[in-house]
Amino acid sequence: MKVKICKLLSDKHLQARELRAEVLRKPLGLPADDPAFNDKESDVHFVALKKDSVVGIVVLVPDYKPGVGKLRQMATAEEVRGEGYGIALGSALEEYAAKNGMTSILLHSRHYAVGFYEKLGYKITSDVFQEVGIDHFVMEKDIITG
Questions:
Q1: Residue 110 belongs to what H/E stretch?
Q2: Taking the CA of residue 129 as centre, how many other CA atoms within 13 Å lie in the half-sphere pointing to its CB?
Q3: Which residues on adjacent β-strands are paired with residue 70?
Q4: Which DSSP state fits 130?
Q5: If we measure between CA atoms, which residue out of 60, 65, 74, 69 comes closest to residue 113?
Q6: Please, which residues bridge with residue 59 across strands?
Q7: Nearest-angstrom CA–CA distance, 140 and 104
Q8: Model-level pTM?
Q9: pLDDT tens track for 102-145
Q10: I want to staple 56 with a disulfide (CB 3.0 to 4.6 A). Which of 18, 44, 68, 85 is the partner?
Q11: What is the number of domains present in the chain?
Q12: What CATH number is attached to the domain comprising 37?
C-alpha cells in the first residue's frame, strides 16, 4: 500500500476523479462535471495505490480557514474497503497538514461515514444538515496537540 500526492490533471489525478465520481457521485445520480466537484490548483490530492492503480483518494483544501484544512472527497474502491487504505489516506493528509502549519482538520461527513471518521479521532461539531441530498455532519479534529 502506497499513498502519494499527485498533481492536478496528472494521470493519477484523472484516475482518482473517476473513482470519486463512481463512489461519491454516481450512486446519488449526480454528474461528475458539477462545478462543486472541480478541483483547484491549491488543493492537495492524495492517492492510495495498489499495484500502481488508484484505489483511494482524498483531497485537502489547505487553509480552508486560518490554520484549518478541509478534508473532502474521500473515496476508496469497493474491493479494498476494510484493508486500511482510508486510514492511510487520512494519516497522510493529517501529516501533510501538520507539517504545513495547519492545526486542525474539518470535514463534512455523510451520515453513514461518521463511524469511520470517529475511529480516526474526528468529532461531530454540528447538527445534521443536507448536502448533495443526504444527511451530513461537520466533523473536526485537532492535529497539533500541546
A1: strand 104-110
A2: 11
A3: 61, 106
A4: E
A5: 74
A6: 45, 72
A7: 7
A8: 0.91
A9: 999 999 999 999 999 999 999 999 999 998 889 999 999 999 86
A10: 85
A11: 1
A12: 3.40.630.30
How long, in residues, is the chain? 146
Task: Band the pLDDT of 36: cuts 50, 70, 90.
Answer: low
Q: Which of 129, 110, 107, 99 is nearest to 59 (CA)?
A: 107
- Cβ 126 vs Cβ 107: under 8 Å: no
As a whole number of angstroms, the distance between CA 20 and CA 124 comes to 23
Identify the domain containing residue 25 by its residue range. 2-142
Q: What's the CA angle centered on 43, arms 83 and 23, to 5 degrees? A: 40
Q: Residue 121: which of 87, 83, 98, 70 has the closest Cα? A: 87
Average pLDDT, the chain: 91
Note whether 88 and 79 are within 8 A (CB). no
**How many angstroms separate the CA atoms of 53 and 94, rounded?**
23
| The C-alpha cell that represents 80 in the structure block | 479494498
